[in-house]
Every structure is written in C-alpha cells, then in structure tokens.
Amino acid sequence: MDSALKFCTVCASNQNRSMEAHKVLKDAGYDVHSFGTGSAVRLPGPSIDKPNVFPFGTPYEQIYKELIAQDPKLHTANGVLRMIERNRDIKRAPERWPYVGQTKPSSNSGGDSKSRSSTPPGSGLPRDLDFNVIFTCEERCFDAVIEDFLARNYFHPDEGFGEIVHVINVEIRDDYQSALLGGQAILELANMLNEAYQDSLKNYDETSEPFADRVTSILATWQSKNPNHPSLYNVCLN
Amino acid sequence: MSLEQLESAKALALQDLSLFPPILDQILAISTGSDLHLTRWCVLFLRDCFHGKQVPFELRYQQSPKLLDSLLKCLTVKDTVVVSAIIDITTAVYDLVFKYTIDYPGDTETWSKMTLLKSEILGRFETADPLLPLNRDADLSRSIPVKVSTLKFYGKLLTVHLPLIRDPRVKENNPQYDLDFSIAMVPPNHPVLWNTDGEGENLLDNLFEMLSDELIQTTPIFTVFCSVLVQVLRKRPKYIFGRIFNLILGYDSVLQRPPVYETDMLKVKMVQRYNDRFNKILISFLLNRNFVKDAGLKQKLDKKFKVLVERQRVKIDQYSRVEPIAHLAKKYQGNEFYNNSIVPKDNTYKSLFTLLQDSNALAQFDMSTLPLHVLVDMITTSLTTIDTSTLIRGLTVVADRYTFEVAKSLTGQTNAVTPHQQQQNQAVAESADSDYEPDFDDAEPYQLPPPKTLTISEKKQQMSKIVENFIRLSSDQNHNHNNAGGADDSQKKDFENWLLIRLITRGLKDETLVDVVRNCIFDHFVQDMRNRIDIVISWLNEEWYNEHLQDPAGSFPNYTSWTSKVLDNFLPFLESSDRKILIRFVSEVPLIDLGMVMKLKSLCSDPIRYKLGFQTLQYLIMFKPPAKEHCIILLETMYEQSSDDVKEQCLGYLKKYSPEKYH
C-alpha cells in the first residue's frame, strides 16, 4: 500500500491497547507506529498498590525476562506475558510520545523508528510525527496528544508544513479482552478512512471531495456501529 | 516534460543552488500548463522549496516576487491539492515579499500583485472553492484542506500586519526576531506600504467575525482556527491573548445551530462534543503552561473547564438536544434548498434541476418510471400546495444555472466561473497588471470564420437526409390527421408533395442532387405502392412537363426512364384486384410509349393476372389513342409467340380493334 494513510496508535504505556491496534493495523498492511503518553510503562505487579514500572525504551524482551523472574505464574495468569510476547514480535521497546521540549530518547529506545526517520533536509525539528491519522485509546491520551501539538504550534510556530493530522480517540478499557475488541474497532475505522482516502486520490476535479471533508461523516457512521467506543476527534497542525 | 525529468531537475536545483533560479523559472512556466498532474507536481515542489529551510533564506527572498503570477493563475485550478498548496506557498512567501517591498520601495507592481493574491484567497474562505458550491452552511465545511491553508495564511497575515513588540528581556540578536518581518519595520512615508497600519486588527476582526457565526464550525475548521491563534499568540501576544480568552470563555457548541440540511443528528452531537473537548484541552494547555497570571481570569477558566468536563461525561447520543430539522428549515427560510449552487454539476437535466443533496434517496429515484397520470397528479398537487415564493426561489436557482450553462457554451469555456469569480476576474482585469488584460483588439470587429464548403458527396448525404425527413414528417402528419381527415389536410399534403416534386424538376440545377431526391421519392413509393401512387403520378407528370418545356419536340429521357423503373417495380407486385390502381396509373401519366406497353406482356401471360393485363390494354386502346398502336403491336407479338389460351384472347382483341388485319 504505497499511498495508504499513515497511522499511529497511542495509549498510556504502549503495551496493551496501542500495541494490539498496532498489530492489527500492521497485519492489515498499513504503515503504523505506536507510542505511550504516560510517564513510564506500568504493568500489574504482585499487588494492586505495587505495579511494575519500567522506563520507556526498556526492550520488551527485557521486561519479559524480569517478569518471568518475578512470578511466572502470576504473569501468565493475568495475561501479561502473553501480551509482551505479542509485543516483542512487533517492535523492540515501548516508546514514549515525543513531547516537545522533552529530551530525545536515546536511539535504542524505539523499535522500527529507522524506517520512519524521514527528516526533510532543512526543517528544524525532525518530522517525527509524520502521520495522517493518530488513534488514541483513552481520553487522557487524546488530551495529552492534542496539548502537545498545541505546544508545538506555540513554541515552534514556523516549523513544519502545518500538515493536517487527524487525531481520533477510540475509547478502550485497559484489559486484554477489551484491547482485542478495540483493535478490531480501530481497524474497521482505519479501513473506512483509508477507503475514503484512496477514493479521494482517484479524481481531481471540482466535484471530488477531499479526504479531510469526509472524516467527520465517516466517524459518525462508524460511531453508530460502535457505540461502546465513544470517540473524540480534533485536527492538529504538524 | 515528464515527471521523471522534473524530478531530476528538482534534484539538480537543490544540489547546486546556482541552478535553482533558472530551474525555478522553467518550473513556474510548466506550472501554469493544462496538465493537472504537472501542475500538482510543480506547486508541491514550490511548496517544499519555499516552506522550510531547504533553500537558503537569501535565495528564497530574491526569488519570491517572480512566483506571484503563477500563483495567481494556479489559484483558479479546480483541484483542492493545487489550491491549498498555492495558499501554503503564498503563506511562505508573504513576509518575504513584504520585506522585499520594504527594501525596494520603487517596485509597486510586486506588492499590488501580492495584495490581489491575498484578496483572492481570503475572498474564497466562505465558499467551497475549488469544489462546486452547494449551500452556505454546507460549503463552510467543504474544501477543508483549502480552508486549513487559508487559516494558516491568516496566521501569517496577522504576524506581518501586527507589529512585533520586542521583549526587553530577550537579547537583541535573538534569531527569533531576525526573520520576524512586520509592519514595525516599515519606515514612515514608505510609498507602497504607508497605509498598512490597522490592517492587522481588521484582519483579526474579520477572522473572528467569520468564525463566531451562529452556525457550528466543523471540528477540523474550529480546531485548526484555534491552533493558528496559538501559533500567533507566541509572536503577537499583546493582540491575541485577550481574543483567545474571550473565545474560550464565550464558546458554547450547544448554543450553536447545526447546518440547515444536516439530517444526521448523531454527527451534529459528535461535532459539538469534539469542539467542546478541544476547548477544554485549550484551557488546560493555557493553565498548565502558566499563561494566565490574572487570578480572576484563572477562576473563570477553571469554572468553564469544570462545566466542559461535566458535559463530556454524558453519552454522545444524549450530548445535547438539537432542534428538529423541520423547525430549523422554517427558521432559516430564504435558503431552503440544499443544493442552491448556480453551477450545475454536469451537463444533465438532472443536475440542471436538482435542489437535493446527492445522498438524498429521492435524488436517486427515477421519476420517469412512474406512469404519466401519477406524475401529473403529483405535479398538480404540489403546485397547488407549494408556497409561491419558494417555487420562485427554486425556479430562480434553475434559471441561473441555465443562464450559466448558456453563457458557458457561448464562451466555450470549460472552466466554470461563478459570479463571485466573475467579480474577482473583473477586479483582476481592472487592476494595473497588464498580464491579466484579455488578449484581443477592440478596433477590429470580430467575425465568425467562413463556413466550410461541402463536397458533392456531403451535399448528397445532406440532401437525402433533408428529403427523408421531409417525407417522414409529411407522412406522419397525414397519418395523424387521417381520422380527422379534412380538406385542409389533403391540401396540405398535396402542397408538400408538390414542393418536393418541384424541387426535383425545377428547384435543383445539379443533376446528381436531383437524382438523390428522385431516389428518395421512389424509395418512399416502393415502401407502400398501393397508397402512394398519387405522389408518383404527380412526380412523373412534372418530369414530363419539365422536359416538354425545355424541348417540346424532343424526347423525354428522364420521364421515360423513371416511368419504366416505376412500372418494373410496380407490375410484379400487382394482384388481380389492383385493376383500378394500374388503370389509374396508365391513364394519368402523360405519355405511354411502346417500351412501357411491352412491360404489360408479363401480366397478360400470367395465368392468374392475365385479366388485369388485357383490361389495361383494352382501356388504353379505348381511352388513350396515342397508345393504341403500341397496344396492337403487343397483342400481335403475343398472338404470334404465345400458347393457345393467350393466343385466343389476343385474337379476340385484335379482331375487335384491328379489324382491317384480323377478321
């Protein structure tokens, strides 16, 4: 899919919801990247008040090993190990949303970021958010992403092209089963959006609606079929 | 030039910047061509070069004035990608051209082009351009990429036309200031830019006026509008700060009305929720980053924030009560058709007349499948119940489209021009820029080129079409009027036939064309010989008379050959009961020669139709004396050659009419 939309999925820890959505979109052939907006990766621990906390950039493999060492029974029973096994096949490590002003994470943090370092020569900031559509999986993450774009607009008003980025929240509960369902809902929406996008590329004349004109209606159609994932949608300038 | 060649030229220009200006010139020339793919490539190239730092500032600064002509031209391309890229480029070069005009006060032309370009772009903001217009409400949420680019352009305009106020805490040679060109730099008495004071605040007023409409903005427009304000906030805090807070505090999506024709209420509620969410995020952005020092303002923002958070808790489908659509339609009368565009979508009657949204189920329904009486009932019922002024408004839309189409076909233009653009074009024509003067000479009156002369075969083709049509119309009329059957009809029929016949004999000089008409009449006759004998008789009489006029003593070649042809085609199909027709024919044609009489031989020797033949011969002998001799010859021939039955018949006639030889 050469001219398909570029997607990004975002949740809090870049472990469960964003990674499940990352997987289904990737399996469907899309160009996709994923991030977490939290301050660190939080996973269930031995008790509810003792979560396991890892810094972003810790490879999934390493997290896996540490959890197995900690309590293989518990982490198998709660599905966490199965989740991390899935993740490590997709990319190397959970990545934090690249907040503006935050020091760039070291190069070993991300997974397949090599393929995406398409920094156009001359532009000041790396074009690290070069996506058409960003799916967030929780309202808190949506707010964080929008607020970060506003901060980019404020602090670097002359950077970038001011490209349109569609940011869409698909609310998903943070458990393994919900993430599976949520991933399918995101895939359905992504397919609808991509179909409209491809259609908008076919004709250029005064009657063919551009992609951006179609997004709100697509969301309304999708929402009526998926009432369990209340949506949010804003457009940002990158 | 192909896209591959352009790509290599681009690589070359960016590799060796000394080549950039000449390659730029070439690409500008190509950009205004008719190939949309090339135009797209060129404007995207320009956007890449002038946006960002790929090309050094000095080079962009020098080259930017030469872009303006191409930008103006490409702005009329009917493609959202091209138009939004053009606006992005204009945004990128606006401050460069502004700086250039400050530096070169003698160059008035460049700035006037830029001013024109600016008004062209801003004038389109509330339209759907480059898409075809539908209605105001819908158009405000269409062509979103173009509107987003226009909002970004507003951001640049505000930066340039609102003065930079230096923060005394920031060092003098801060790079943030180096490239910030604004009216603060314009020297007093600058010959071109002297009157740009106050323009920034006017722009700001216009922008807020447009967006503080009672109609809810679609989410992309609302959020991009606020994002652009946030961009300008950093550079011109003094002017933007207060506006942003008033916007945030005053904004209430629930108080805004949905577009008149929006039928999807879920969508409306979603847009309200999305916009409120953005407003909430904007508040937290401003509060979190300590933009707000004033305690009173902080309190107000906190309060608004809580209201919005509370509102977001409800489910989407209960988000707010939206007025039912019927009520809205009444409320906003005067604009009650979804599609009141004066530009039809294509050349069909459907798009000429439709006032419906494309997705409306009615628009897909083919009315012609209904029986006529149902349609008539529907139309009469509608006409008696419809409000007259509504009907007139609807008809006015259709009439405008019709006028538009007619104007378009007269000027042969393929690009649709709306009245709005017409005004703009007028403005273009009136401006001082001679490049946009239409290219023609007033002194010489325009003349149509002379028509091409037809070749003889084309003439023949046309002639046979005309005559066929003539005959068809004439026989249709006769057919339709058969029942009524008055004297008028038969006279009219005679007159039409007579016209044709006269055309053959005396109307046309060219013999080949005459033959075309003759063949047409002949074919017409052959299709229904029994009922069309009249026209053939009149025709052959005229043929004879015409040849008689030309040479009374001469022969009648046309008459003879066509009469023989008629007989050849006629006789084999006659039946015994056709006596009257055959006798009428031989009696009414002016001349019967031996050749014609001899053709009756086939009838006379036919075992079934022989009576028909002999009765005709008897008639000729008795009532057409000039033919008597020919008939005797035929009888004699048959008497000598034929078998017993025929021989006997012939002998009977010969005894009676040639008693001197046979007795």
Automatic annotation (TrEMBL), chain A:
Residues 94-124 are annotated as: Disordered. Its main location: nucleus. It catalyses: O-phospho-L-seryl-[protein] + H2O = L-seryl-[protein] + phosphate; O-phospho-L-threonyl-[protein] + H2O = L-threonyl-[protein] + phosphate. GO terms for cellular component: chromatin; mRNA cleavage and polyadenylation specificity factor complex. Its EC number is 3.1.3.16. Component of the cleavage and polyadenylation factor (CPF) complex, which plays a key role in polyadenylation-dependent pre-mRNA 3'-end formation and cooperates with cleavage factors including the CFIA complex and NAB4/CFIB. SSU72 is required for 3'-end formation of snoRNAs. Component of the cleavage and polyadenylation factor (CPF) complex. This is RNA polymerase II subunit A C-terminal domain phosphatase SSU72. It comes from Kuraishia capsulata CBS 1993. The lineage of its organism: Eukaryota, Fungi, Dikarya, Ascomycota, Saccharomycotina.
UniProtKB/TrEMBL annotation, chain B:
Residues 415-428 have a biased composition (Polar residues). This is Symplekin/Pta1 N-terminal domain-containing protein. Keywords: mRNA processing, Nucleus. Coiled coil: none annotated. Pfam families: SYMPK_PTA1_N (PF11935). It comes from Kuraishia capsulata CBS 1993. InterPro entries: ARM-like (IPR011989), Symplekin/Pta1 (IPR021850), Symplekin/Pta1_N (IPR032460). It comes from the Eukaryota. The keyword DNA-binding does not apply.
